[in-house]
Write a structure and sequence with these properties.
two-stranded parallel sheet; 5 helices; elongated
Length: about 140
């Protein structure tokens, strides 16, 4: 996983098509303002269950560039006790705190399932000297 922007490394996809598919995934009979049979609701839910991996991948294809603008490559929130601290500094500090709380030590190995772009895993490795393997269903994040 590279620290550079992933925008130029992934195949181009039409953002409108991704957004339409993502929205369509959540538009089901159960969300309409009309009475619906339980069987129809279950059919809609089963269809969404089958589509989850594709929808998650499409969602991150659509939003990754914007997430990187705000959070860098660590897509999570953290506390900001120091108002003079930048978002990226606070995120890095929080990742160091998490590595400390988990008791990470040099040479330890870990798995980050659903690693996204791998920002936290790389920070754990730098801070604590660990080896972390990232696992993602999204090719954009793996490149």
């Amino acid at each position: 996983m590279s620290k550079s922007s992933l925008k130029d490394k992934a195949p181009a996809k039409d953002p409108e098509d991704l957004a339409t598919r993502f929205t369509a995934h959540w538009t089901a009979a159960e969300n309409a303002n009309k009475p619906v049979a339980i069987a129809e609701i279950e059919v809609a839910r089963e269809k969404r269950r089958k589509d989850y991996a594709s929808i998650a991948k499409d969602y991150y294809d659509l939003v990754t560039d914007n997430l990187e603008l705000g959070w860098g490559q660590s897509f999570h929130f953290c506390p900001f006790p120091d108002p003079t601290e930048s978002i990226r500094a606070a995120i890095s500090r929080h990742e160091h705190f998490l590595a400390y709380i988990m008791g990470l030590k040099p040479g330890m190995r870990g798995l980050d399932a659903g690693c996204g772009t791998g920002g936290p895993s790389r920070e754990f490795a730098r801070f604590a000297g660990t080896n972390v393997t990232g696992l993602s269903i999204n090719a954009l994040h793996v490149q």
